[in-house]
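Structure ticket #2291
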Amino acid sequence: MNKQVEQKGFFYSENYKKFKQYFIIILAAFTCLLHILQFTPWFTMESIKFYSWHLMLGFIFVFLYTPINKKKPGKYAWADWILILLTALVIGYIIFQYDYIIDIIQNNKQDPTFIVLGMLSTLLVLEAARRVLGWALPIIAILAILYAYFGTRMPGLLGHRGYDINRIATTVLSDQGILGMPIGVSASNVFLFLMFGAFLEVSGADIIFQNISIALTRKSRGGPAKMAVVTSGFFGMISGSAVANVASTGSFTIPLMKRQGYSKRFAGAVTAVGSTGGQIMPPIMGAAAFVLADVAGVGYKTVAVAAFIPAVMYYLTLFKMVDLESVKLGIKAIPVEEVPELKGTFTQSIKLIVPLGVLLVLLLGFNSTPMMAAIWSILSIIVLGLFDKKDRMTLEKLLNGFVATTRSMPQVVAACACSGIVTGVFALTGLGLKLSHFIVNLGGNNILLSLILAMLICVVLGMGLPTTASYIICATAIAPALIQIGVPSLAAHLFLLYFASISAITPPVAVASYAAASIADENAMKVGWTAVKLGIAGFILPFTFAINPDYLHIGLDLTTFITMISAIVVSMAAAILIQGYIEKKATIVERIICVVVIVLAIQSGLIQSLAGWILFGGMYFFRRYQAKKDDKSKKEVVN
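Resolution: structure written out below.
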């Protein structure tokens, strides 16, 4: 009995907890410094070797932060350490036998040692993804491997010549698979931006965002929900994670909305939709946007600029729908007693504005690489923190920033590595091209029908998958088809990114909606379907810019001016159409007018757009005038 208690007690002891804590801090500091040094002139290693380091460190953090028994972390902790040791041995072998491994990959050799490494690496990837992401993505990866092996038995279009275990293992552990583009983007761009977001949060940026949002919306009707939209948008710009955004902002915004009269389902849905938009909101967007830049073969600056107008439309539509909901419910501004102390907010915001300014100037003004822009922005946060007497950047905060970065790392690494298995099999078997031909043949020459088919496939694949994994699979399988039918390459990839992102609020598996529902204490499906209604812009916008690429253009020209005015009109009309309110309940005729306005305003021609503006302006301002006149009459009657 004593022996059993003694064996069990080690992983529950304070000594073990302290050892694990110090181990994480040291490893986190090493991880962050390694990723920074890789992009400096003084220390640069070969790409695949660097990707291997990133993969190894990411998996170690997966097994440290996500124990095999989440309810009792001390139970079976020995199994977690065995997997950590196995990760270090397997991927460490690839790092320290780099020349040998590269020779095998480049010459497609069948080497027994490499095959064993490939099989062990695949098992580690599947287990890491299962722990962090659940079963959906690992099951897809397993099915992909089985498809590669049993290809000769597959019927019709899906059939292929089949591959043995040796060839599959070699492909999976190569620059076409686990060590390919997805993990490469995670190692280079994504990690440093995760670090940038983590240091902003450590420096108190999340509170600054929240207070700025309150200051901007506290005097307007429906203030609490509008504040939630603005806060989620601000925070999403630096986090890029829908669930993390919900957890960070929802704990404050959802209870405030409920207290002011919004229903639980609406409060949860507003936060979920606002948080999901962070993945498509420049300047940072989500991890998938960096993958998109690499896959589409364009600079990240191009992606961020192209995404700006659609992202503004997304939030403008949500903002207006929230405004109209407050009209329905008669909810006014945030009461004075509910407004937190805002004194000093704008003074403190220099710690937020300067790093974001550095990032934007380097990315957009000097055409710097995203990696160097992120590194200089991180340094600016640290330097500004050192001079902040009220909230100084201490060694403890610095270490907390390193640790916070690595807490965000496992989900991205696991998703990219497991997606690498799927893309590797697609490349090996040609499945991606087959799916593209299927979409082209089924859609014929009808772009709209092909886009709808692509949307359905993307939404189904996105159920239960993180945005990055969903986008990678869709980009491999569907993007070539959209490009083939005439959709511009960047528009095609952004189309898929939107639907990969919007899956976070689309039932039956809607991770952002579920996270918001738990905070709102409401049924998850109710929150999910309300989120679909509020997030309608996310379903319409991809079709808008796929059909009219002007929405992805920004410049000092007439096209940009027309597009921006049309974007505002389309967003407002869509909100009124869905909510059924202007200042009072909208009539059927007015809702039909909104449909006509949307169809006209999304066209690229000036005449159609102008007709849409005039039609909407006449209807909207007449109703506003009518509402003010009615309010004035009521006041006169009361007096």
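Closing remark: The chain has 30 helices and no strands.
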